[in-house]
Give the backbone structure.
Amino acid sequence: MNFKPALGHEAIHVRFSKALEEQRLHHAWLLYGMKGIGKACEAMAMAALYLCEHRNGSEQQGAHACGECHGCCMLKAGSHPDFIMLERLEKKRDITVDQIREVLSFLSLTGMQSEKRVVVLNDAEMMNLQAANALLKGLEEPSGGSLLLMVCHDLMRLPATIRSRCMLGHCAPLGDTHMNHVLAGMEFSDVAKKMAVEIAGGRPGHVACLQDHKVVDGLLQWQALLKDVQRADVGDLQNWLDTHLTMIPHELIIDVALQEIQSQWDGTGSFTSRESLLKTMWSLAAWPKEVVRHSLRAGPALMALLLELRLVLKSCAVA
Ligand SMILES: [Zn+2]
């Protein structure tokens, strides 16, 4: 792990570094932007910079953690006593109030290694209301030396009271140059690389799992099934869902599906049927979030949408 500023997010890093240098660092930062663009990496770079004992770097590019001091080594090893990374627990729907209380009591302690304590709170929008209320209290009464770095990809799901107490940092998807650089460092097969370039949209984290050939094979099968979704065997669709939904990120499944539908649809159909098709595509795009938000069973929910899609495509063809 290197603690350099995350590629494409140098501006926010410089802002953070300057504030730290000038000893006017705000106690809570909120990095927001699309999923898979490196926000959590940047939050880690900030945390490391804050805890590092021998910062280096230039004024222009901002300082970065040295990667070698005692603090940096402990952070790399995952054993820094003054650092916590908090995320939603596996199989839990939300970040819970208990998790937040734990974090707040950690932040209110005196640091073990120094005066400093840092928490990176990933997917902050997954906090339930109770958790968010508890966090708000902590934000209102920060203790000296504590730093909270929040990361979220759906800013509007966080209460305005929390947003307004944080230093906001917008992170944009990566541009082509940065993207090519990151993709070049990943181990893709030729077919995976083609797929990655098509669906990455400036989000390297979104396509990183295409380095696994099982994921690529699964998505190719999926694409083939959708090529003729109107005639595809429902049993085959069901089999695919049963074996792949737990293995492939849901957002990727939907990206491939939408891309396939768009490439097939020639724009024909009555106004009503076209509108229905767009509506179904919207529902497909929203499926990954809906599954989490409403604790739906992913398979049956997606199957229902696929069946709806068949009907809609049929009506487009007839009209
Ligand atoms: Zn260091």
Q: What stands out?
A: The first strand starts at residue 28 and ends at 32. The chain has two domains: 10-170, 212-318. Residues 180 and 197 are 9 Å apart (CA to CA). The longest helix spans residues 271-293.
